[in-house]
Design brief:
By secondary structure, the chain is mainly alpha-helical. The chain has a single domain, classed as ABC transporter involved in vitamin B12 uptake, BtuC, CATH 1.10.3470. The protein has 13 helices and two strands. The chain has a two-stranded antiparallel sheet with strand order 1-2. The two termini are about 15 Å apart.
């Protein structure tokens, strides 16, 4: 019975995605159009890429509430660099470096100050957002090179270019988490940090690396967002941390650490994307969408806790 329950739990995100896809296909004649599917891919790419970085953080037993603010900061810094230099490549690189630096700073503070990740990243959420508004003067960055639009809106044949970017990120993230020492240590730290320390794992160094990777992914997502909007918005990414964490949890990640997969997160992010797109097609207001997201997070965590109680009893 326990084995059967574990199998159901493992495939539940996939079954949920398939069921949601079928329901929306029947409920709206506009859902299964090429234009709408392409739009879903573009809209969910940002959350997807951020969620891949968050997967490592949550598997390690941590959390990062600052990713929404970090995304806005990376986007503003990257677009300001583009406007100043005229170089799209340098702007994208600057945005990714900015995200990586903030992620590493989060990891360093968590390790050195011995403060819970929730508190550190709650603090940096405000710090980063405030600095973003300061350097931008609260105004969007405009006048970006037209070539920058290809990152978020370009196509290769019939497929959105951003889908290729997402696929590369998925492959790299899966390899890192499941085929490298960093990935093995991430699971070990999340499962039992004290045991990891006694085993000789340099926990502090790996925590900094984990949060830095999350920042790198967030920086890339921030540049994709600026490409779609063709502006650097200092107010971008508000509540994105909620959607990113929800994607990981829905995909089977445990907020207690030690559990989570890249494929599960990918499915969770697409579930979030379909919920948002379906709500728009069916005329459900964004306010109710926030209610749905919050309820899904509670339900996913409740199911995870119930599963753990069954296995421990």
């Amino acid at each position: 019975m326990l084995v059967k329950s574990a199998v159901v739990q493992k495939f539940l995100p996939f079954l949920t995605l398939a069921g949601l896809f079928l329901i929306l296909s029947v409920a709206s004649p506009y859902f299964l159009t090429g234009t709408n599917i392409s739009s879903v891919i573009r809209q969910t790419a940002v959350i997807n890429i951020m969620a891949l970085g968050m997967t490592l953080v949550i598997v390690s037993g941590g959390i990062d509430l600052s990713v929404g603010s970090m995304m806005a900061f990376s986007g503003v810094v990257g677009t300001m660099t583009m406007v100043a230099t005229g170089s799209v490549q340098l702007g994208i690189l600057t945005g990714m470096v900015a995200g990586t630096a903030w992620g590493a700073a989060n990891g360093l503070m968590i390790y050195r100050l011995r403060i819970p990740p929730f508190i550190v990243t709650l603090g940096t959420l405000g710090i980063i957002r405030g600095l973003t508004l300061v350097i931008s003067g609260g105004l969007p960055v405009v006048g970006l090179p037209k070539e920058h639009g290809f990152l978020g809106e370009g196509t290769i044949g019939p497929a959105p270019f951003v889908l290729l970017v997402l696929a590369v990120c998925v492959v790299i993230s899966h390899f890192v988490l499941h085929s490298t020492r960093l990935g093995r240590y991430t699971y070990a730290i999340g499962s039992n940090e004290a045991a990891a320390v006694y085993a000789g794992i340099p926990v502090g160094r790996y925590k900094v690396a984990i949060y830095a990777i999350c920042g790198l992914m967030t920086g890339l997502a921030g540049m994709i967002e600026t490409s779609r909007l063709m502006t650097g918005q200092p107010t971008a990414g508000v509540t994105y941390e909620l959607q990113v964490i929800a994607a990981v949890v829905i995909g089977g990640g445990s907020l207690a650490g030690g559990e989570g997969t890249v494929i599960g997160t990918l499915i969770g992010a697409f579930i979030m994307g379909l919920l948002s797109n379906g709500s728009d097609l069916l005329g459900i207001t964004p306010y109710w969408q926030q209610v749905i997201i919050g309820a899904i997070i509670i339900l996913a965590v409740a199911l995870d806790e119930a599963r753990k109680r069954r296995f421990s009893s």
